[in-house]
Amino acid sequence: MSTTQRFIVLTPFVEKTVVEKMLQLFQLSAQVVELPEGIAVVATRIAPEFTDWDIAELLGEDSGEEAIADLAAEAIQAAETALDLEEILAQIPSDYTLLALGKYFSTLSPYGIVHIQADLGNDIGGEIGVSGLVKAQQLQAGKVSAEIPAGLLLNTLSQELEDLVLGN
Q: To 10 degrees, the CA torsion angle through 155, 167, 13, 65?
């Protein structure tokens, strides 16, 4: 069975068109959705399947994803200074560009943003229906400021957000 990864950047912004224009500017294809909480940017991909485990995954060592996302965030900020945007974006793996955009959005608001990642699958192992892992973080000024319990977040916010996370 394949697992789907869903990335959601929940912003406090109220203008959907501004967020859509930012996505176009940074050449990102993602869905922009208006929610009662603000504007959400949603991207989905099929999760890579690993046949061999790395001991770093068990020990919790940094896999480099955060470093790549930081590089992407720096590139997006550098783009504001009129550098060649296409050249910068070509150096960044596309998987990390939405997180980088979230980090950039978090610098535009004193409230920051909420980044949600859901790794979900159907009928995995002995479980019937949708199952998986949901992680949430608050980002402020381009940095992770807090880990948020995903269940509490989904229970507190609108049903529309939960539907986005679950892919409904």
A: 100
CA-nearest of 68, 77, 85 to 28 is 85
Angle at 106 between CA 103 and CA 112, to 5 degrees: 135
Among candidates 148, 77, 73, which has minimal Cα distance to 114? 148
pTM of the model: 0.72
pLDDT digits (tens, 9 = 90+) for 53-96: 565 555 555 555 666 666 666 666 665 554 555 555 555 555 55
Residue 40, pLDDT score: 94
Give the span between the Cα atoms of 2 and 137, in whole angstroms.
Answer: 25
* Residue 142: partners with Cβ closer than 8 Å, 6 or more residues away: 73, 103, 104, 106, 107
